[in-house]
C-alpha cells in the first residue's frame, strides 16, 4: 500500500515471474468485469499466483478473495497493491483481517537516494548519539525539499519540470482517484482541502478552523482529512501526553508526506526557500519527520510518532516512543548556530517523560555532534542519511 507513483507496480513486476498472473484494475475492461461479478472474477482466475494491481478500484474483490482464501489457505496466492488504504474502505474493512500482511511502501528515503544504509535509528535506540562528518548541507536540503522523494521528479533536471509533474499528479488525484473514494459529496471542497494541507503542513490541526476555510463543518472536514490520509497524502500525528500531566495540548499535528508536493502547491522554489528562514524551517520539519517515518518502517522494533506541546506553548517537533515506552525527542532547526533556548522544549519534555526519557536530539545544519549533558545532543542533520 502507498500513494500513487511511489513504485508499487515497478516493485511487483520486479518480484513476479512467469508463474504469476498480473492483472491491473487500471485496465477499465478488467475492472468492469470484476465489478459486475467479483466472486466469479476471482474464481475464474487461472491456477497461478495472482498479482492484483490497484485493488482499491474494485474493493468488492477483497470480499471474494476472502472466500477464496478461506477455501484454500495456501499462503502467498495473492499479491495486492493499493493506492488507497483498502483496509479502511467500507464493507471490506474486516474481510482480510488475519488473512494477509500489509506492507507500506513510502516514497524514496534519503538513504535510498544517496545509496547508503540507514543507521540513524539503530544508533539512537542503542543509546548513542548519531554522528556525521558532513559539513553544512543547507543547499542540498533546499534542493531535496523542493524536489521531493517521488521517483519520477528525481529524474527531472529542472524545478519547472518537477513542478509540472506534481501539478499533473495532483490533477489526476482530484479528477480520478478522489472519485474512487466513498462518501465524498463535495469534490471541490476536497480539492481545496488538499491544497490547504500544503499550507498547514507541520502545524496543529483545528478541524473547526480547517472546515471554515473550505466551507465545511467540523465533522465533514475531519472525514475528508481522513480520506486524504487514506490516499497516503497526509499524516496526522497525535500529541504525546502522560496521563498525570493535564497541561499538555492534545491537538494532533499534520504533515504532508512529501515536501515536493507542498512546494509545487505553494509555488516555492529553492531560491525562495533559501531566502525565507521561517518557510525553510517549517518544511525542514516535515522533511525530517517523513525521513524518520520511512526509516522506522525498516526497524524490527515498532516506533510510534507523536509531537509534544504544553499549555505554555513549549513544544518538541517529533517524539518517538518504542513499544516498551522509551521516549526520544527530536527538535529540528534550520540554522547552523546553536543557542541555549533551542533546547527548551527538549528539557521540558525530559522532565515530563521522567524515567521513560532516553535521549533528546536537536537536529541542526552543523558539522559536529555536541553533548549538552543529561541525554541532550545537537546532531548534524546529515546524520539522518550518513
| Beta-strand residue fraction | 15-25%
What is the number of helices?
A: 16
Helix content: 40-55%
Strand/helix succession: HEHHEHEHHHHHHEHHEEHHHEEEHEEE
Report the mean per-residue pLDDT as an integer: 89
Q: How widely separated are the two ends?
A: 27 Å
Radius of gyration (Å): 22 Å
- Low-confidence segments, given as residue ranges, are none
How many strand units?
A: 12
Helix-and-strand structural type: alpha/beta
Strand order of the largest sheet: 7-8-9-10-12-11
Shape: globular
Largest sheet: 6 strands, mixed
Can you walk me through this structure?
- The chain is globular.
- The strands form three sheets. Strands 7-8-9-10-12-11 form a six-stranded mixed β-sheet, sandwiched between helices. It has a three-stranded parallel β-sheet with strand order 1-2-3, with helices on one face.
- The mean pLDDT is 89.
- Strand 9, helix 16 (344-353) and strand 10 (357-364) form a beta-alpha-beta unit.
- The chain is of the alpha/beta class and 386 residues long.
- It starts with 7 loop residues before the first helix and ends in a 6-residue tail after the last strand.
- Helix 7 (138-147) packs across helix 13.
- The longest helix has 22 residues, at 159-180.
- The chain is built from 16 helices and twelve strands.
- The protein has helices spanning 8-15, 28-36, 38-43, 60-71, 110-114, 120-125, 138-147, 151-154, 159-180, 187-200, 207-214, 218-230, 259-266, 270-275, 277-297, 344-353, and strands at residues 20-24, 49-53, 78-80, 203-204, 234-237, 253-256, 303-309, 315-322, 327-332, 357-364, 370-373, 376-380.
Amino acid at each position: 500500500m502507498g500513494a500513487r507513483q511511489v513504485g508499487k507496480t515497478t516493485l511487483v513486476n520486479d518480484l513476479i515471474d512467469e508463474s504469476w498472473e498480473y492483472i491491473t484494475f487500471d485496465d477499465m475492461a478488467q475492472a468492469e468485469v470484476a465489478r459486475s461479478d467479483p466472486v466469479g472474477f476471482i474464481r475464474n482466475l487461472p491456477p497461478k499466483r495472482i498479482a492484483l494491481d490497484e485493488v482499491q478500484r474494485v474493493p468488492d474483490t477483497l470480499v471474494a478473495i476472502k472466500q477464496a482464501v478461506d477455501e484454500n489457505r495456501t499462503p502467498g496466492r495473492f499479491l495486492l497493491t493499493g493506492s488507497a488504504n483498502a483496509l479502511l474502505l467500507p464493507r471490506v474493512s474486516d474481510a482480510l483481517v488475519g488473512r494477509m500482511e500489509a506492507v507500506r511502501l513510502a516514497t524514496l528515503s534519503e538513504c535510498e537516494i544517496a545509496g547508503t544504509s540507514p543507521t540513524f535509528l539503530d544508533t539512537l535506540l542503542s543509546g548513542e548519539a548519531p554522528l556525521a562528518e558532513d559539513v553544512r548541507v543547507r543547499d542540498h536540503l533546499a534542493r531535496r525539499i523542493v524536489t521531493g522523494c517521488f521517483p519520477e521528479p528525481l529524474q527531472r533536471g529542472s524545478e519547472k519540470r518537477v513542478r509540472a509533474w506534481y501539478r499533473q499528479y495532483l490533477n489526476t488525484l482530484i479528477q480520478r482517484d478522489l472519485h474512487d473514494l466513498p462518501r465524498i459529496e463535495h469534490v471541490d471542497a476536497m480539492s481545496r482541502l488538499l491544497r490547504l494541507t500544503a499550507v498547514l503542513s507541520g502545524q496543529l490541526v483545528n478541524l473547526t478552523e480547517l472546515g471554515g476555510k473550505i466551507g465545511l463543518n467540523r465533522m465533514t472536514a475531519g472525514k475528508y482529512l481522513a480520506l486524504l490520509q487514506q490516499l497516503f497524502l497526509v499524516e496526522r500525528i497525535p500529541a504525546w501526553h502522560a496521563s498525570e500531566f493535564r497541561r499538555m495540548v492534545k491537538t494532533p499535528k499534520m504533515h504532508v508526506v512529501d515536501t515536493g508536493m507542498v512546494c509545487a502547491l505553494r509555488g516555492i522554489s529553492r531560491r525562495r526557500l533559501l531566502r525565507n528562514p521561517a518557510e525553510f524551517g517549517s518544511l525542514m520539519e516535515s522533511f525530517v519527520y517523513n525521513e524518520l517515518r520511512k526509516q522506522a518502517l525498516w526497524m524490527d522494533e515498532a516506533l510510534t510518532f507523536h509531537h509534544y506541546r504544553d499549555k505554555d506553548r513549549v513544544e518538541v517537533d517529533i517524539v518517538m516512543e518504542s513499544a516498551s515506552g522509551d521516549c526520544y525527542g527530536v527538535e529540528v532547526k534550520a540554522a547552523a548556530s546553536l543557542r541555549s533556548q533551542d533546547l527548551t522544549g527538549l528539557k521540558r519534555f525530559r522532565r515530563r517523560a521522567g524515567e521513560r526519557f532516553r535521549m533528546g536530539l536537536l537536529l541542526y545544519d552543523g558539522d559536529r555532534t555536541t553533548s549538552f549533558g543529561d541525554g541532550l545532543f545537537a546532531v548534524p542533520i546529515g546524520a539522518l542519511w550518513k
